[in-house]
Amino acid sequence: MCKNKKRQIVEKKGIILICIFLIIYAAITIFFRTHFYNTTIDGINMFGKSVEDAKDIILYKLDNYCVEIYEEDQKTQYITGNDIGLKYDLENQIENIKDKENPFWCIAGMLKHNSYETDNIVSIDKELLGKSVDKIIESRNKNIIENENAKIDYNDGEYIVVDEKYGNIIDKNVLEEKITEAIEEVEQEINIEKLNCYAKPEYTSKSKEVVQAKDTLNKYLCAKVTYSFGNEKEILNKDQIHNWLSVDDKYEVDIDDEKVKEYVKALANKYNTVGKEREFTTSSGNKIKISGGSYGNKIDEDFECALLIDTIKKGKNISKEPEYSQKALYTGKNDIGNTYVEIDLSRQHLWFYKGGTLITEGDIVSGNVNNNCATPSGIYSLAYKQKDTVLKGQGYASPVSFWMPFNGGIGIHDASWRYTFGGNIYVSNGSHGCINAPYSLANTIYNNIDSGTPIICYY
Asked: How far apart are CA 196 and CA 193, in angstroms?
């Protein structure tokens, strides 16, 4: 009897304990149906917090969000959510996190820590953000150092790239991007230097434009032109060419046309012989100086400039004569050579040499001095020769057997209407400017002379 009574008492106590446990478990389960247990959201412990409480806590944190922006040797700047019109929309994320927790396993769940991060949907007023960043940039108090693009310098006979230099100009777009990222991650600070929010040089030593420009310049430096002027030479190489080269701010290489023209003009001034004074030894043995006339070498400056620029661009190494618009029989200072017609207008005598050998000589009659038709002095060249033609002018028409013009309408020809030559006939009874020669003299010259032969006239 006694044993049964004791067992009944034990059983009743057990039932009571089980009921109490079930009541407590039910109460806990009911509580954690709407409240979090061992749960962290966005780094905040939400134990015992309801969904609405959790939302309020997160939104309070976000509503009071402030990001600290700092830079060495600068005053720390702050941007708040209000400064940039910051808004967050959690949507149903807190509810979805709560749905992952089974209230019936709350006791076991309290022993296990659960951590979640919300995917905050951020809304920022871009215009306000831009104004805030402008204020940060304007408030900087240290010396502002500009970026410097890579440069190309000429050094010791070649072009080299000098590295770019980095300044401390803030790149507004980058800083805005970093601030937006920080807000999305609810970060509290931005280190401008660490995050490299500075503007970068537009062109660096690795930029293809820079590398191509350097290669192009060095290719141009490979050009070498050796000009021949008879026994004299002029050598153009990189020592001069590099002074003609430049690179613009887009790294386009340019050859200065004007400087090329100046160089070719200098060659022309030095080596052109048309009209220049020459020293000439006459058949009488006298050394005279004579200038004027159309004979000589004349460089075609425009054509030579174009060829020279093309040669430089191709980096060629060539030897050549310049392009001439007019060519003498010879180059160099003595471009007359030893084949020429010499006319002494004072003595009224002519000599014709070919290859240094006197072919013929004789008296002539030149232009009438009293009628202002005197034959001009100078050095000319035979334009062409023609047989059996009629020379026409104002008030005359003269048939000739041999016509050899050298100065426009002035030339050497036979004069069958004359019986005497030489002396002072030319002073008052000379020609209209031509060189009248006896038939035999004109015939011999005609049969031995070629176009381009120098005709030297002097008094």
From this structure: 5
